[in-house]
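Per reviewer request, we include the raw input and output of the structure prediction for the construct analysed in the revised manuscript.
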Amino acid sequence: MKKRWIWMSASIVVAIVGMLPTYIDYNQRQNEYYVFMENNSEYVTQTLEKNDIPYLIDERGRLLIKRKYDKKVVVCCT
């Protein structure tokens, strides 16, 4: 019985340690920016500001959005 408990505990620890890098990578990806529009639109930027969604405009005039705001952007801007 004691061996079974040790085996199950070790399995749980290994599973948690194995999932940790995935969680860390997921959080890093959520903070990355992606190109939402190739050409900046004043209407879209006003809509983003109205809905409190942060954005960037790069040197090429593209509109960039953080991945963690994907769903919110789709709801308000499409």
